[in-house]
Amino acid sequence: MRVPPLTICEKAVILEALRSGKRFDFRSLEEFRDVKLVVGSEVGTAICTIGNTKVMAAVSAQIAEPSSMRPNKGVINIDVDLSPMANVANEHDRLGSKGMELIRLLELIIRDSRCIDVESLCIRAGSEIWKVRVDVRILDEDGSLLDCACLAAITALQHFKRPNVSLEAHHTLIYSEYEKAPVPLNIYHMPICTTIGLLDKGQMVVIDPTEKEAACLDGSIVVACNKRREVCALHQSTNLVLTTKQIERCVKLAMARAEALTAVVSSIIKEDRQERSAFKRPDGFAITTPSLILTTGTAASRQIKAPVTKREPESSQRSLYQPSVIINENPLSVGSVKQEEVDEDELLAEQLTTIQNSVGQVAVTDNQNTVMSNRKREVEEVNNLLEGLDDSEEEEEIQTMTLGPSEPVVNTKMVVEEEAAPIGLVKRKKKK
């Protein structure tokens, strides 16, 4: 996918602003963008950000066989990935001319400048060496891509530590970080790359140009220096003819930039080693996550609360107005109450008031009168049944007494009259 070029109007506006000494990000022509550098929790990883340009670098090592031309020297390889995430013009698994140029410049700055001692990477001369690989991933692109990639790669190499080894008669022992401390790389110096844009055939200098500014410039020059004020690499992107004074001016700006960034890298690596020596695991790339982004398991997601909103009393005019269409309104949420807003004391008070009001408003109705009369009728029927049972029991007693052989028949009436009095008393007690 090709990026649409700048229009004539955009290009004219940018050039006019640069010639007047102004830029759209409120910088001067000789002012750099802010640099953010973070090392990861794993050794050999780093992320560098210059403005909106972001690059991640990761270093790894493995044992390999050396070449016959250099039997006692290690190997350093650099791999670059230009993903479409960084720029829509990039294609997946295709570097193109831009990617190949970036790889060649990184190899020129890091490997050909001999900033790393490759002889210390030899294990057995002619048979085993350490093969170090630097993977550079472009996450976002907005100008000064080589500067950001070079700084990320140098920081990752400073942060990297290879495993410790010991030589035996017929084999090589590789120790883990828990058995023996890893060994850092021998780095002589740190080349820092600086891109300087050229305008009006080199008469004007634009430091750290953005992507749109680079498309309007006549060309650019790349200067790699270290803090010893040594020029490690020099590359010019176009065929502009520059004078000696113009090149010297660019080199001076690059040297001042290299001294400042070298101090930043050294301080970051020193702080990381102090934390690791105190058995503290660094935060790593977690500190680059904005605090507003919520992730699972974080305290911020549990502490967040909805903002309290105050409802104003609706006026008569507003109550009369009824919109014809309601958009994005959940009918189930109308009149609902949040769980946090429910107060137990208020709820109990409301329930008590409703119960008292209901008790005070109770009235006797015809249905209740009918229920009471039915209840009395049932009680009377039960009492009549009990009286009938008592009468049956008296008759059985009389029969047993009259049918007895020892007592005469004449005395039955007297017995009944004598026993009738206590039975009547029992009935009266039951009625009471």
Automatic annotation (TrEMBL):
Family named by the database record: Belongs to the RNase PH family.
Species this protein is from: Caenorhabditis remanei (Caenorhabditis vulgaris)
One GO term of the biological process aspect: U4 snRNA 3'-end processing
Principal location class: cytoplasm
CDD domains: RNase_PH_RRP45
Alphabetized Pfam families for the sequence: RNase_PH, RNase_PH_C
Nucleus listed as a keyword: yes
InterPro entries registered for this protein in UniProt: ExoRNase_PH_dom1, ExoRNase_PH_dom2, ExoRNase_PH_dom2_sf, Exosome_comp_Rrp42_subfam, PNPase/RNase_PH_dom_sf, Ribosomal_Su5_D2-typ_SF, Rrp45
Keywords assigned: Cytoplasm, Nucleus, RNA-binding
Annotated localization: Cytoplasm; Nucleus
Gene3D superfamilies hit by this protein: GHMP Kinase, N-terminal domain
A GO cellular component entry from the record: cytoplasmic exosome (RNase complex)
Lineage: Eukaryota, Metazoa, Ecdysozoa, Nematoda, Chromadorea
One GO MF term: mRNA 3'-UTR AU-rich region binding
Domain Exoribonuclease phosphorolytic: from-to ranges: 31-163, 189-256
Lineage: superkingdom: Eukaryota
Record carries keyword Nucleus: yes
Protein name: Exosome complex component RRP45
